[in-house]
Amino acid sequence: PNQYLAGLPTTIFTIMSQLAVKHGAINLGQGFPDTEGPQDIIQVAAEALQDGRNQYAPLTGLPELREAVAASNRRFYGLDVDPATEVVVTSGATEALAACLMAVVEPGDEVVVIEPLYDTYLPALKLLGAVPRCVRLAPPHWSLPEAELRAAFGPKTKAIMLNSPMNPSGKVFVREELELIADLVREHDVYAICDEVYEHLTFHVKHVPLMTLPGMRERCMRIGSAGKSFSLTGWKVGYVTAPAALASVVAKAHQVLVFATAPNLQRAVAYGLNKDDSYYQALSAQMETQRDLLRDGLERLGFETLPADGSYFIVADISRHAQGRGDVEFARWLIEHAGVATIPVSAFYDPDGETPPQNLIRFAFCKKPEILREALKRLEKAL
Ligand code: PMP
Ligand code: GLN
After folding, report:
1. Looking at residue 53, what is its pLDDT?
2. Which residue from 100, 278, 364, 366 has the least number of CB within 10 angstroms?
3. Residue 38 falls within a domain, yes or no?
4. Which protein residues are within 6 Å of ligand 2, measured from CB?
5. How far apart are CA 115 and CA 132, in angstroms?
6. Does a structural domain hold residue 151?
7. Count H helices, E strands: the chain?
8. Which residues pair with 240 in a beta bridge?
9. Mind listing the pLDDT tens digit for each residue in 152-172?
10. Are residues 267 and 317 in the same domain?
11. pLDDT tens across 31-58, in order?
C-alpha cells in the first residue's frame, strides 16, 4: 500500500469522539451541532427523495443550486458569479479542498499553509506530491507573522490555502492581513484556495472573502459548506466558486473523485441558501451566545481563552490546570476524569514540523446551552 497513507494516523476527531462515547463524556471535541438543521430544509430534501430525484445529478451540480450559490455570492459579498461556468458543487468542503488542490498543483510545487490547520490539508497536498510551506500564527492573539509569511513564498509556490473564519483558532482574518496575503498572491502569481466553510458564523466581525480584494477574483477558489451554513454536517454538500478557467478544472477533479453529488440534498441546499438574511443572522447570534456562555465559564474556571470571532470553536490555555501535562494527555484526562471531550490543538500542526504549542485545547460550542452548562459543571467538579 501507499506508505504515506498507510502511516497516516486515524483522525483526532474520530479518536476523541470514540473516547467520549466510551467514557460517557460530553463531546465538545468534534465540531458538529447537537441540534438538527432547519426542518423546512430537511422537508425539501425528503420531498425530493420521494419525488424520485435519485439518479445522478449533473456533474457540476443542479442548476438551481449553482444559481443559489451565485446569488449568495452577490447578496453577501457583491461578487458577480456566472452559475453556469463558475460554480462547482462537491460532496462536502473536504472534497472541494482536494479538488481545488488537484486543479492547480503538480508534483514538486509548494503550497503555503497557515498553522494551526484543518487536518485534511497536509495529507491532501502531500498525496499530490506538493510540498507544504507552513507559517505559524502566534498565540495568544493568533497574529500573522508578516516576515515569515513573506519568506514562505518563493519561485516554486503554486498556491496558498487560507481558512477564514478559521478552525481550530476561531480567528477571522482582518482586511489588513488579507491585503498582505493578496499582495503576495499577486506578486508571486499564485492561486488561493479559500476555505470559508464558517463564512456565516462570525461574531460582530465581518467576514471578508479574499476573492473580493483587487486582483483576487481570477486567482481564488472560494469554498463553502452546507454542513456549516445549515447545521447539517452529515449531508456533505459543498460548493466552489472560481473563475471559469479554474472552475472547469475543479470540475475535472470532481469528475475523477466523485462525479456527482446527491441531487435531493442539492435541491434542499439550494432552498436553504435562498433563505432571507434573518436566518443567517439568527444562526450566528445563537452561536455567539453559546460562545459567550462557554468562554465566560472557562474563564471562571481559570482557563485563559484565546480570541474566537468565528467558527464553532474556542481555544483555551490549560497551563493553570495541566500540571505539566501536554495538551494530548490533558485532553485524555479531561475525558476520563471530567467527562468532557475536547481536541488538543497540537493535532492541527504538521507532524514533521517543529514541536507545536502543548498548552492549548479546542472546545466546540456548537452545542445546546444546557449541554455547555453541564460540561462546565463537570469541569468545575473535576478540576
Ligand atoms: N474545512 C474546515 C476548516 C472545516 O472545519 C471542515 C469541517 N469540519 C471542513 C473543511 C469540511 O467540511 P465538509 O464537512 O463540508 O466536508
Ligand atoms: N471539522 C470538524 C472539526 O473540526 C470535524 C470533521 C471531522 O470529523 N472530520 O471538529
Report:
1. 87
2. 278
3. no
4. 11, 13, 30-31, 167
5. 11
6. yes
7. 15, 13
8. 88, 223
9. 999 999 999 999 999 999 999
10. no
11. 999 999 999 999 999 999 999 889 999 9
